[in-house]
Amino acid sequence: MSQPVLSVRDLIVEIPTRNGLLKPVDGVSYDIAPGEILGVVGESGAGKSMTGNAVIGLLDRPARIASGEIYLGGERIDNLSLSQLRRYRGKQIGMVFQDPLTSLNPLLPIGDQLTETILEHLGVSSAEAEKRAIRALEEVGIPAAAERIGSYPHEFSGGMRQRVVIALALCAEPSLVIADEPTTALDVSVQAQITSLLKRLCRERGMAVMLVTHDMGVIAETADRVAVMYAGKLAELGDVRDVITTPRHPYTEGLMGSTPLASKGKSRLHQIPGNMPRLGNLPAGCAFHPRCPYTQEKCREEPGPRLKTCDGRAACWYPLAGAQAGQGVA
Amino acid sequence: MSSLVSVRALTRVFDVSKPWLNRVLERLPKRKLTAVSDVSFEVAENTVYALVGESGSGKSTIGKMVVGLLPPSDGIVEIEGVNLATETDAAKIDTVRSDIQMIFQDPYASLNPRWKVGNIIEEPAVANGDPTDGLAEKLLEQVGLSASDVDKFPHEFSGGQRQRICVARALASEPKLIVCDEPTSALDVSVQAQVLNLMSDLKDEFGLTYLFISHDLTVIQHMADRIGVLYLGRLVEEASPDALFDSPKHPYTQMLLEAAPRMDGFGREVDPPEGEIPDPINPPTGCAFHPRCPIAIERCARERPQLETLGGSRRVACFLAETESA
Fold first, then answer.
1. With contacts defined as CB-CB under 8 Å, which chain B residues touch A271?
2. Contacts of B189 in chain A (CB under 8 A)
3. Burial class (CB in 10 A: 0-12, 13-18, 19+), A317
4. For residues B38 and B216, is the Cβ–Cβ distance under 8 A?
5. A14 CB-side CA count, 13 A
């Protein structure tokens, strides 16, 4: 296998608070290969976005990377100074946020926003930058790009705006794109357009994509591999087909079972009892054990295993085997 | 089965013109946005009628007109046979109004942060002049929270718990009809499952009727007894969930179902639908969907198709639906 574009090793993000240290990301490790889309799923507060922000160095104070290593194309980037990090952001790593309206400057024409990024990172003449900006807009499917380059963000619809944001993330030809809920604010038909655009660009350019979302359907159709997060930890990491059809971690099983898609024809949806614990109040042992239908003694006492030290796919002391799976969702 | 809600030829037009002085000086015409256009449907008692559509399709506007938060521009909304817009008997209006409640999308915005949960829940009953002793406690337990929560404030609860409080508040006046406008869109899937299950249970327990508004096809499929698909303010297809999801007849419904992500769609390459919802201020002539429709014929641009009954209980507004299925 070729060298991964992004390697994250034992990443821990801390937030010191008056009531002690919170760990919104706790010991997360994964790789993304060139041309691969890694889906990151989980409920709100599971640490999905925090992981993405840590990679691109956008953690808000007082959150900080406490330990762990992040490698981009073999180079370590988690300990860079702010000015060194600036060269990576936008150039090597592109970012697409959830809300396209707030990630564009409403006072600047989109062309200026694109050329600004291109001039900053690629060192070309401004005429060349404008040409590239138009090409970037054409590539994401904006009709009459040469004329729309002087338009302001408010003149575009939501789907078109998200295309502009994607063009902006891609215009410096990054090797990694972090897309944080890129389609959550969009309608179904526009969502299909945006995910197929992401897939096409990923294939054509061989860039790696980290797709953070809570929509299982989007993950199933878009991602190659999927990482399931729960309370700051990776619960399961594996090929998307395996994780969705034969989950090994009880949390993954519950999560898949509770989507209305999976309970076709049933009068009640499967529900995971209780709520995700607050970070300041994590249960002892495995963080999922109070909600887990298969809890045993060891789960209450020992923290859940880290991926790698256990079964390899699910961070669980007693990962589900094929035959056992499904019983908890009855 | 009698129908609780009867909506006939409902239309709502918003005036989105510039202020009149600008209009005079800049010689601009008035601009009208037709959010809902000639929509008719019936909701039978103790069933879930779902309205589904993309943003701008008018689903929330219909919901607001049904509860009476917006007056219709044209057409009739009858609840239990009473048209709230024209009824003059105050006693009748009062009884019907107390039979309607609403649950909103955003549980963070729909609860007053300065009120205690108990007061929030009791408010509809207080407004009706009903006794409120122990009411909030009882309702909190019914929606799966604890009776001791009455003295807490909304910020002490998570999103899913807040939505449960909204449900409890909606139940306080013992309504027959609850209009739910995207009740679970702001929630995570596992919490969504809890709230949807709760809503189903309460429906059976209290004999409630839901008008369920959502853009999420999977939620709709799970909850609805009957589904109306909206496009640009018009009802384009109406059918039972099984009929609709197994064999959608309107090309827009087909496009919507095809575009919806599936759990088993690994690496599925869909041809994403072309174009976007057109501007409702200048909707296309004839059938609103014809510029994006793969099977449009010349007639579609000229004439607006009416909802026609097709094969039993299904209604479709498409000239070609019959020939397509034949």
1. 190, 193-194, 197
2. 43, 214, 216, 255, 258-259
3. buried
4. no
5. 10
List of chain A residues with pLDDT < 70: 1, 262-266, 308-312, 322-330
Q: How far is A250 from chain B (nearest CA, A)?
A: 13
Are A139 and A58 in contact, with CB atoms under 8 Å apart?
no
The three-state secondary structure class of A227 is strand
3-state secondary structure B28-58: CCCCEEEEEEEEEEEEECCCEEEEECCCCCC
Yes or no, beta carbons of B215 and A187 under 8 Å apart? yes
| ipTM, two decimals | 0.80
* Bond into B280 cis (ω within 30): no
CA distance linking residue A212 with residue A80, whole number of Å: 24
B272–A196: do the CB atoms touch at under 8 Å? yes
- In the numeric block, the tokens 């639906």 are attached to B321
The chain A residues in contact with chain B (CB within 8 A) are 43-44, 157-160, 187-193, 195-197, 199, 214-218, 220-221, 240-241, 244-245, 254-256, 258-264, 267-272, 275
pLDDT tens track for B235-274? 999 999 999 998 899 999 999 888 888 877 777 777 777 7
Chain B residues with beta carbon closer than 8 angstroms to that of A189: 54, 255-256, 259, 272-273, 276
Interchain CB distance below 8 Å, B200 and A191: no
User: Are B269 and A196 a contacting pair at CB < 8 A?
Assistant: yes
pTM of the model: 0.85
Half-sphere exposure of residue B150, counting CA atoms within 13 Å on the CB side?
Answer: 17
Length of chain A: 330
Phi/psi of residue B103, nearest 5 degrees: -120, 130
**Which of A288, A269, A267, A273 has its CA nearest to residue B144?**
A273
CB crowding A58-87: b at 16 or more within 10 Å, else e: bbeeebebeebebbbbeeebbebeeeebee
**pLDDT by residue (tens digit) across A171-189?**
888 999 999 988 887 788 8
* A243-264: pLDDT as tens digits: 888 888 999 988 888 888 766 6
- Cβ count near B292 (within 10 Å): 19
Tokens found for residue B306: 């009416």
In the structure encoding, which two tokens stand for residue A327, read together? 């019983």
Half-sphere exposure of B227 (CA within 13 A, CB side): 24
For residue B311, the distance in angstroms to the closest alpha carbon of chain A comes to 23
User: In DSSP terms, which residues pair with A40 in a beta bridge?
Assistant: A212, A227
Alpha-carbon separation of residue A121 from A202, A270, A294, B11, B152 (angstroms): 21, 49, 52, 53, 52
The chain B residues in contact with chain A (CB within 8 A) are 54-55, 158-161, 188-194, 196-197, 200, 215-219, 221-222, 255-256, 259-270, 272-273, 276-277
φ/ψ (deg, to 5) at B22: -60, -40
Read off the DSSP letter of residue B287: S
Q: What is the DSSP letter of A155?
A: G
What is d(CA A84, CA A91) in angstroms, rounded to the nearest whole number?
Answer: 12
User: Across the interface, which of B161, B263, B267 has its CB nearest the CB of A261?
Assistant: B263
The alpha carbon of residue A9 is apart from the nearest alpha carbon of chain B, in Å, by 28
Q: Are strands A208-212 and A176-180 parallel, antiparallel or unpaired?
A: parallel
Contact by Cβ (8 Å): B85, B77: yes
Nearest beta carbon to residue B189 from set A158, A259, A267: A259
